[in-house]
Design brief:
This protein is mostly helical. It is built from five helices and no strands. Helix 1 runs antiparallel to helix 3 and helix 1 packs parallel to helix 4. The radius of gyration is 18 Å and the shape is elongated. The protein starts with a helix and ends with a helix.
Length: about 130
């Protein structure tokens, strides 16, 4: 159980760093290609905030992917070492998935959407 918690925390940290690197440092319009056309058109073209910001952002994203992979490999390695069945592996990875989703909904979306000025604009765009 402790390995599942450690793997989940690793995935949460990787997810946070991925968003931090992409949104905080790189700020490329290509990351928002799935947004509605009206919102995509409203996103300004941004240059680097400071010299080397894109390099720092890509470095953070690479570290985030390595942490993701490390969390998954740790969960698999421990399961193979302890001779887990398919059901135990499934439960482990479902716990990791749902914990990551709860983290996403509670902290990242909650903090970023509700406390920022973009939330009222987003709500206004949903009104029919």
């Amino acid at each position: 159980m402790i390995i599942t918690i450690i793997s989940t925390i690793m995935i949460m940290v990787g997810y946070f760093l991925l968003l931090y690197g992409a949104v905080g440092f790189i700020q490329d319009k290509r990351f928002f290609f799935s947004a509605p056309k009206e919102n995509f058109a409203a996103i300004p073209e941004r240059k680097e905030r400071f010299r080397g910001a894109h390099i720092i952002g890509w470095f953070i994203i690479v570290i985030a992917f390595l942490i993701f992979i490390g969390g998954i490999v740790l969960g698999i390695w421990d399961g193979v070492r302890n001779d887990f069945s398919f059901l135990k592996f499934s439960v482990r990875f479902l716990v990791m998935l749902y914990a990551m989703e709860v983290y996403d909904m509670s902290s990242l979306i909650g903090c970023c959407s509700v406390t920022q000025t973009s939330f009222p604009i987003f709500i206004q765009s949903l009104k029919v």
